[in-house]
Protein 1
Amino acid sequence: MRDAVIVEAVRTPIGKGKPGGTLASVHPVELLARTLDALVRRSGVDPELVDDVIGGCVDQVGEQAMNTTRYAWLSAGFPESVPATTVDRQCGSSQQAVHFAAQGVISGAYDLVVACGVESMSRVPMWSNVPPGTDPFGPGVAARYPEGLVPQGVSAELISAKWSISRERMDAFATTSHQRAARAHADGLFAAELVPVRTDAGEVTTDETVRPGTTPEVLAGLRPSFADPALAERFPQIDWSVTAGNSSPLSDGASAVLIASGETAARLGLRPLARLHSFAVTGSDPLLMLTGVIPATEKVLRRAGLRLEDIDLFEVNEAFASVVLAWQQETGADPAKVNVNGGAISLGHPLGASGTRLMTTLVNAMRQRGARYALQTMCEAGGLANATVLEAL
């Protein structure tokens, strides 16, 4: 069987996903195009050799419609002969793009492929693809779940209640995320992965949402974001402790990785950063929605033939603090190995870009810390999750 290896990985800084954010003036196609351009330039490969470009994007409407990945490739000035497609597995879209790309390499369908993602939540707000008055679920889902499904924030509250995770623990976790991200920036740990983005207001070189001065006391003053009287009656166990401070912010950003077969990397003189060792996807309860990271972790470790203790670093997407804390309780993972350079609560969560953003940060952290094995997992809307094991080479 052929190996699939990551030979380059880049990301933009992440901006606030609202008007006035540092990247809000940049069209999402252009944001991804600049990322792809940096990926190809840094790797030194001839773009004509790329077999496919697979990109993740969640709200595929408006400026993110019409196969955004294809037009980003063309906007970057690369060959028209190279195809591209855009996939949606919700927050795990670009991690799924990595899976598809690597599986294509392992099977022999590809020799060299780009996996990437983009989301401009300032220009294409969440739920833009569901116009008012429309039903994206249909009558069969309504019949199967007659009491109704709930928004992700309420799912995060249900997780907090089920695993007895206090507001104080979530705020402490969020504070640690900001501290780690601020320290990583100060120590230059993101330098190898960041692609500066030029805007009308100047060049953006750093993540906008990191708040070094965050403390548990500051976060304790924030109001719950998802409190709802009707849902409080339905779910009396919820104490409404999920806030903007212990959740990921709306974000803009793009990221990309270049994946090759081991033979192709050797032939082109490319240095592998990590081998894509094992993959797993899973479904879970769509009411809790965000707990799929727990069975996905178990499944990918089983497929990899590894134990939790074998993993040196973890990236678990910080959509909400309660998700990562519940995952830690169930798996027993060492918190010191999880999101060591901060996570989405501090760095941001540009939906379709987050999978390859986490992977870009993870492969660099592996090199910086001498890690052999690393595991990445993402919770996803609808009760889904991806998990990937990387091995250093």
Note: Residues 167-186 form the longest helix (20 residues).
Protein 2
Amino acid sequence: MRRSTKLAAVVLSGSLGIASLAACGAKSNDTTASSGSSEGGLKVGMAYDIGGRGDQSFNDSAARGLDKAKAELGVAVTEADAKTGEAEADKETRLKNLVTAGYNPIIAVGFVYQGAVEKVAKENPNTKFAIIDSASDTQPSNVTSLTFSEQEGSYLAGVAAALKSKTKHVGFIGGVQSELIKKFEAGYKAGVKSVDPSIAVETTYLTTPPDFSGFNSPDKGKEAAQGQLDKGADVIYTAAGSSGNGAIEAVANAGKLAIGVDSDQAAQPALAKYKNSILTSMVKNVDKAVFAYIDSAKKGSVFTGVKNFDLKADGVSLATTGGKIDDIQGKLNDAATAIKSGATTVPTAP
């Protein structure tokens, strides 16, 4: 996907901290006057997780919501990228620079921002913040958590994997061994076992905190997938941001099936040559959450507390691009209905 242009001096005046924003990797889609003023309108700042816009997965989903808000709500926006291996202070500085530049609300993409958001939000009580994929009992009232029931969508991915596996051997690759990614693992394994308890499930995590490079290392994803393929797995689900691109490549080269995550990866231009090997993707509709949050802010009734998007609310779903799950759609619908009705409770821990 096309990356937005770097934030230039014509967008933000020196008094709004141009130099510090540029140092933190800020970019802008701001189409307002040269002073950077939105003429009284809403100015939304987005701070991405590592991988940023163009990762074909998690960040891109958030970016789609931001783009829609810009197009349909007429808000001014700016974007700031994270760096692999950055310190906590870098995240804090990125958020502070957005505050100084007058962006309000500010959306932090990913649980890695939890500490930074809490600190900066407490220091700036008049600025609204949203954080995706994280909720804390200690965060101030000007922070909204946008969360998802990843385990429910992953359960359906597990059902699909089990129904399509010819070897009765499937795999799961997690980017970083965190409580969030364990929800993906737990749901996936439960879905697999609901179809056939005898199916083997390989599990590999690329990194453990505080190393978050597992979300932005396609080479590690490729290596992990190859390891699982060598053990006999023929369907592999990867929840690892852009690292999943490497896993998909390895699976496609082996003539097996991959399950994507967050975005409909079979529909991503950068992964077009592998689309025939992508069985489905567990789509986490971050774009819908981002747009809904910005819309609530524009209307003057911004979401507060924790706003969760589950299967019933279309917060998660399975992509159907390519038609590879058409023949099992009936069973997937039955599984989804059981979750929505409460007949099936999906675990959140492996």
Note: The radius of gyration is 20 Å.
Protein 3
Amino acid sequence: MIAVLLRRAGLVAAAALVTLLALATPAAAHGADAPDGTDYRTEVTGLTPARPGLTVRAVEAGARLELVNRTGRDVEVIGYSGEPYLRVGPGGTYENTRSPATYLNRTVAGDTALPPETDPAAPPQWRRIADEPRVRWHDQRALWRESGPPAQAAADPTRAHRIRDWTVPVRDGTEQVEIRGTLDWVPPPDPYPWWMAATLGFLAVGAAGLLPAGSVAGDHALRAVGALLALGGAAAVVLVVGRELDAGAEGVGGVLAGLLTGQIWPLLTGLGAIAAGGYALARRPAAADFALALAGACLALFAGFANLSVFSRAVAPFPWSATAARVLLVLIVAGGAGAVGAGVLRLHAASRLPTTHPAPTHPTPTPTTP
């Protein structure tokens, strides 16, 4: 039975790895839209002149700008050639299919091919893209699109540098309004201490699997691993909820919708780790070891290793500090990978225990009467 569970744990872990690798290509395609981390900080400083009911902010670690129009009238975001690009108002959100910005802004790289009908000088042709007066878009004026760092950062990489102050024009009726903001290069952190913390945590948690199962120390170790795995699962849930908040989700409904459409696997693995940790705290059979190994593998793969760039990037897609995101990631990697090590070690040790069989019983001979 133990050997079967051990083989199943290996198969499930391998299947999870294959699934992650299979998802890596489409994830990379959308990685520019919602980066895992960056060294460039985009901030909106305000609207000039101010417009009550019109708000703009940077979302997705600065990869997009979000405009919300509650003024009760239409406003237009102006494209790169001075043409109407977006129209946002009470009737919803529209994009001008004649504007080059409609296509260039679909990715951070701005490498979308322009269709033949693109013509910034032509009258706008509006296409509805949303029912609400809210729009998010990449804007090259607020981003750094070169492959290398700016010259001032290359010359002095030890401190932050202001790359530029940027503006995006908006038309409110006949009046011109400007979205103003800043773009800074921020020195990336040293990833070594974070890697060391995650590695030491993994070794410490995994070493609990060396204690003999069935002993008092082994029972305490099982509960400790379960608690740490549940802590890692809770950290994963906080991390993915934070990513949705940073992406502009508002309210419980908005966060849930974002989680179910864009963060479903990290969310499920976090919740699964919490459940498996609770199971280990409540029970002590070999099934708990199997649950720890399985949930830990999924947590480490889908919520941990998929976000490792947070260790080496200055700006994380997180509404609070990047340091907080790194601490959460350490808990996820150490708890998840450590639970895999502890669970597999305990299953392996259990599979090597000698199988005991009850002593054969022999019928008592019936005495014969002479």
Note: The mean pLDDT is 86.
